[in-house]
Amino acid sequence: MAVGETGKLSASVGEDVARDHEYVPAWKRALDITCIVVALPVLVPIFLLLAAGIKCVSPGPVLFLSERVGYRGRRFICFKFRTMKVNADCDAHRRHLADLMRSDAPMVKMDASGDPRLIPFGKILRATGLDELPQLLNVLGGEMSLVGPRPCLPYEFESYLPEQKRRFDSLPGLTGLWQVSGKNKTTFSEMIVFDIKYAETKSLWLDLKIMGRTLPAILTQVREARARRNRAGESQPQVASPRRVTTLEQAQPELMSSK
Fold first, then answer.
1. Can you tell me the mean pLDDT for 229-247?
2. Residue 87 CB neighbours (<10 A)
3. Which are the contacts of 153, defined by CB distance < 8 A and separation ≥ 6?
4. Residue 9 has pLDDT above 90, yes or no
5. How far apart are alpha carbons 90 and 95 in whole angstroms?
6. Of 137, 29, 24, whose CA–CA distance to 78 is shortest?
């Protein structure tokens, strides 16, 4: 690459970063940093305990690094605690995701019915969201926020329609409007509705309400996962609820009353 081309590329990257900071509200960055600093005395022991546990039960690295798509299509390296065996087959997840997008069935994770790729207590980490704690490093780096749409995989991004890519008009987050609105009971298209609505209406008050509802939502997901395990021996397949969310206001009117 010529020197002139390198200079142009650097200038382009600089302009992208400047535009990102222009459209990301200052209150959002302040909220992220403040919450992480306040929670550090609790987060550090949990982080070390989980890292030690993973190292004891499964050979390989503690962290799993994955390329993700975030704000305005920017790609970045996302950090997670490793919950699967080293060199686990990823094609199964790709097929599962494609089926969810095509059939518009409830967004139930693959491990809901058992996944042999998981390490011991990997299912617990995933059900509780503790595997995503290392993404706080992404938040500190400005690639993510505490609240926002989930970052997606590159091959998922490539399947999005132009309208669906509006969900990337906000920094990706650890929790979000979709995650506290029945996550595993909603379909792919409903997730898109939640994420786009959040990108259009995000505010400090809305972020605080979503953060306040995150723990109850996680506890509900854990109870539902336990109930699914108890029904695992039943021959009749799980039937999705006939009720469908068509608009965000119908789904969570109390969350959207942020004014």
1. 55
2. 8
3. 66, 67, 68, 69, 97
4. no
5. 9
6. 137
Predicted confidence at residue 108, as pLDDT, reads 76
For residue 227, what are its two tokens? 């109930």
Residue 233 structure tokens: 């021996």
Question: What is the identity of the amino acid at 46?
Answer: I
Comparing 258 with 182, the larger pLDDT belongs to 182
Q: Beta partners for 220?
A: none
